[in-house]
Amino acid sequence: MAGVSHDSSQYHVTGSSEFVDDRPMMPGEVHVGLVRSTVPCALIKSIDTSAALQDPDVVAVFLAKDLQQNLWGTIFHDQPLLADQRVNYNGEVVALVVTESREAMLRVQQLVAIDYEEQKPILSIAAAREAKQFIGTVRTISSGDPDLALSRSEHKLKGSIAMAGQDHFYLESQAAIAYPAEGDTIEIHASSQHPTEVQHLAAEALGIPFHQVVCVVKRMGGAFGGKESQSTPFAVYAALVAHRLQRPARVVITKDEDMMITGKRNPFENDYEVGFDGDGRITALKTNLFSDGGAYADLSTAIMERAMLHIDNAYYMPHILITGTVCRTNSASNTAFRGFGGPKGVLTIENIIEDIAVTLGLDSYTVRERNVYQSDTRNVTPYGQQINDNILPSLFSKLKEACDYNQRRGLIKQHNQGGHTTVRGMAATAVKFGISFTTRFLNQGSALVNLHMDGTVQVSTGATEMGQGVNIKIAQVVAETFGIQVQAVRVMPTSTEKNHNTSPTAASSGSDINAGAAQIAALKIRKRLALVADQVLKRSSKLRGRPVAGAGTAAEIIIDEMATEPDFVFNEGKVYPAGKPQLAIQLPDLIEEAYLNRVSLGDYGFFRYEGIHFNKETGKGKPFFYYTNGVACSEVSVDRYTGEMKVLRTDLMMDLGRPINQGIDEGQVRGAFMQGLGWATTENLYYADDGALLSHSPSTYKIPSIHDIPRVFNLSFLEDSPHQKNVRGSKAVGEPPLLLGLSVWAAAKDAVRSARGGGALRLSLPATGEVLLNALFDEAVNDSDFSENS
Fold it and tell me: Per-residue pLDDT tens for 229-245?
C-alpha cells in the first residue's frame, strides 16, 4: 500500500477537519474562563467572588471546595486542580468563571479578587539545589567501577551543560467540552493524548463512578506530549461545570493562556566527569543530572529516568555512574515533550564527545565511531540490556560516505581560513532511542474490529490521533489483513466506552501497541472467515459446481475456532486457497455466508510488549522492547558579526525497520528533526522576575520557520534492517528523529570554536543568535570552564 496518504489530509486542506472547538454550540451551552494566580509563591488569604457574581453575564463561579477530589497527578497526587490554600506558580488556576458568551468570559475573569500573602519563590535549579527542594528521590544507575577507572584514565575532563525548556506550541490550544446526560452521566470531548486519565480523574473529581463518564477524542491539533497529562485538568473543569449546572460546558483557552499555564520540556543542568584514552575511547563517566520539575511532580520523575537511560546514547561506556535529581521550583509543572527525557541525556554525551575530540585534536566523527556500540562485544548498556541486531556502526559508516564527510570537512577548513564574514561548522550526532514506556504496565493496548456486510471495517483503539498518522497506519494493517483497500477501513474516534483502561498515546509506541492489537483482532476474524470459506468450497466441490456464497447453504456451517487455520489468501477483495485463485470467493459474499451461519464478524484484540522489565531501585533490567536508531550530519554557517546561523545541509539516515507507511514516516522524521532543531537553536523561554512567562506568543517565541530548514535536506532509510519483532517489522518513529536536531547545535559549536581559534567551548542550549554572538567574543565561555589532566 505504498503512497497511502494521511487519512485526514484532505480534511485539513479543505478546512473540514473537526476539532473540539469546531463542535457546534448546543442550546444552553456555557463558557468557562480560568482565573489565574499573578504571583509565583503565596498563601491565599481570601478569594472574593462577589463582583463577578453580580455581573449579569456570569452564571456561576467555582472554587476548589466544589470538587469532590481536588488533588491529581499522573505519578504522585500532589497537584490541586484548583489552588486552595496556596499558589505555587505564576499562572496557577484558582477559580472558574462561567458565562453565557465567550466575550463575557474574557472580560469577567478579572472580577475575582484574590488576596495573597506572598513568599519568596524558587525560580531556578540552582536555587532549588541550595534550598534542597526536590521531587521524589535521587535515582542511580551504575555499572563497573567508575571511580577506579577515572583514577586510571589517561585523560580526564570535567564540565557541565545547561539546556533550557521548550514550549509544545501545538496549533490547537487546550480544549474540552462536557455534555451532561441522563442518569448523572457525563460525555467529555477532549483534546487529550490520554482519554482514560480524563475519564478517571473527572469521575473522581465529581464523586461519581468511572462508568458514568465517557471521554471521546476524535483528533488533536498537535500535542507533542503537552496533552499527555496536562490536558486532563481542562477536561475536569468542563465536566465540573456541566455536572453542577446540567448544561453543556466549553473550555477553550487562548494561545497566550496556554503557554502561561502549562508546563514545558524540563530544563536540565548536568555535571560530568569523563575519563578517556589517547584514541578518544571513553573509559569512565560520572554524571549528575538535575532537572527543573516545576511546582508539582507531573511526569518529571519518569522524564528523569528516561534521561538517565539515554545518557549513553549510541556509545559504550564500561564504567559509569549516573545520578538524577528532580528540583522543585515555583514554575508551571514541566511535563512530557516529544523525546521525554531522552534529548537531555543524549545532548550531554554528544557534548562530551565533542570536547574529547577537541582535547585530543581528533575529528569528532572519528571519536564517535570509536565509541559506538558494537555487535558481539561492547554491546551492553549501563542498565544491563544487551543491544541485539545492532546497526549503529553501519549507520555511521554509510552516512559518512553518503554525505561526503571527509571532503566537506576539508572545504569547511578552507572556507574558515579564507577571511569570510561567516564561519562554518559541521558535526554528526546519533540516536539510539529505547521504544516502550519505562513503566511496564503502560505497555498494553486493545482494539475492537467490526467487519460489516459490505466488506468495510470499523476499528476502535485506544490510540489518539494528533497528526502523527497513527490512524492511517492502523487502517493499513487491518486492510492488509483482510486484503481490501485502505479506504474500506475507518478508524473511529477514540472512546473510553469502546476501549477501556487505555495507556496514553506516547513514548513513540502508539502505532506499535494499537496497530498490534488491531491486527490481532482482525486475524481472529480472518481465521473464522477462512474456516467458513473452506467449508463453502468443500460443499461446492461435492456438488461439482462453482463456489457460490451469499445465499446460505441448506445445512448450517459449523466451524471449530480451535482448528488450524486453512491456508487461504485474502487479496483485492477476494478469498481463495493458496495457489488456487480460480476458486476465489468475493469477500462480501463470504462475509454474508458467515453472517447467515451465525459466525462472528467482530472481535477484540489485546497487545503488550513481551519480555521487558526494569528494576527502578537497582537501575538494572531490560526496559526497552527494541531501539530505533539514526545518525545525522549537519553543516551550518554562522555570521561572525551578528551570530545569525543558517543550516546549509543536513543528511539523515535512520533504521525504521519496514515502515507501514513510508510517506508518513518521512514526514515524522523531517518534522521531528525540525522540532529538535528549534529546541537546540531558536526556541527560548523568557521569564520575568516574578516567574511570569514573557514569551507567550508567536511574536516573542521563535519556533523554526521555513528559513530555518536546511538548504539541502537529505533523508534515507536503512533498506536492509534486521528488525523483525514488531508489527510488520516496523519501528517507532515519533520521537527518535527529534534528537538528531542536536547535530545542528553541535555544528554551531564547531563553527564558533573554529572562529575562536580552537580550544574547548562551553555552549548552552538553545544556541540562539544572541548566544552564538556572545560565544564568539566572550572569554567567559572558553576552556577555563573545563579541567583536563593527562
Answer: 999 999 999 999 999 99
Q: What is the mean pLDDT of residues 408-415?
A: 97
Helix (H) or strand (E) segment spanning residue 228: none
The per-residue pLDDT for range 459-488, each reduced to its tens digit, is 999 999 999 999 999 999 999 999 999 999
Q: What DSSP character marks residue 401?
A: H
What is the per-residue burial (b if ≥16 Cβ within 10 Å, else e) of 236-266?
A: bbbbbbbbebebbbbbbbebebbbbbbbbbb
C-alpha cell recorded at residue 35 = 482565573
* Res 786: pLDDT: 46
Angstrom distances, CA of residue 366 to CA of 352, 396, 740: 14, 10, 18
Residue 206 has pLDDT above 60, yes or no: yes
User: Percentage of the chain surpassing pLDDT 70?
Assistant: 96
In angstroms, what CA-CA distances link 119 with 35, 297, 653, 682? 20, 21, 51, 33
C-alpha cell at 229: 497529562
The residues carrying an active-site annotation are 735
Cα separation, 628 vs 640, whole angstroms: 37
Which of 758, 752, 734 lies closest to 681 in space, CA to CA? 752
DSSP 317-374: -SSEEEEEEEEE-SSPPP---TTTTHHHHHHHHHHHHHHHHHHHT--HHHHHHHHB--
The per-residue pLDDT for range 563-602, each reduced to its tens digit, is: 999 999 999 999 999 999 999 999 999 999 999 999 999 9
Q: Which amino acid is at 759?
A: G
> Which residues, listed in sequence order, are joined to residue 615 by a DSSP beta bridge?
620
Confidence (pLDDT) at 546: 46
3-state secondary structure of 629: strand
Strands 155-163 and 787-789 come out as: antiparallel
Check if the beta carbon of residue 528 is closer than 8 Å to that of residue 565. no
User: Strand, coil or helix: what is 455?
Assistant: coil
Distance of alpha carbon 323 from alpha carbon 328, whole angstroms: 17
**Grid coordinates given for 9:** 489530509
Range with the poorest average pLDDT among 2-16, 222-236, 347-361, 411-425 = 2-16
Q: Alpha carbon of 360 to those of 169, 353, 355, 363, 781: distances in Å?
A: 41, 11, 9, 9, 19
Burial state string for 371-389 with b = 16 or more CB within 10 A and e = fewer than 16 = bbbeeeebeebbbbbebee
What stretch of H or E contains 670? helix 662-681
Q: CA–CA distance from 762 to each of 163, 236, 784 (Å)?
A: 12, 45, 9
Is 193 within 8 Å of 504 (Cβ atoms)?
A: yes
For residue 68, give the 3-state DSSP assignment.
coil
- pLDDT tens digits, one per residue of 311-329: 999 999 999 999 999 999 9
What is d(CA 469, CA 219) in angstroms, rounded to the nearest whole number?
A: 11
Q: Can you give the length of the chain in residues?
A: 790
Domains and CATH numbers, the chain: 9-120+174-252 (3.90.1170.50), 268-438+616-789 (3.30.365.10), 444-608 (3.30.365.10)
Confidence of residue 779 (pLDDT cuts 50, 70, 90): low
Those residues with Cβ within 8 angstroms of residue 231's Cβ, 6 or more apart along the chain or in another chain: 174, 176, 190, 191, 192, 193, 194, 198, 223
Q: Residue 3: its pLDDT value, please? A: 74
CB atoms < 10 A from the CB of 196, how many?
19
**Statement: residue 427 has pLDDT above 80:** yes
The pLDDT of residue 781 = 61
Buried b (16+ CB within 10 A) or exposed e, 412-443: beeebeeeeebbbbbbbbbbbbbbbbbbeebb
As a whole number of angstroms, the distance between CA 416 and CA 421 comes to 9
Number of other residues whose CB lies within 10 A of the CB of residue 587: 24
Q: What pLDDT was estimated at residue 780?
A: 59
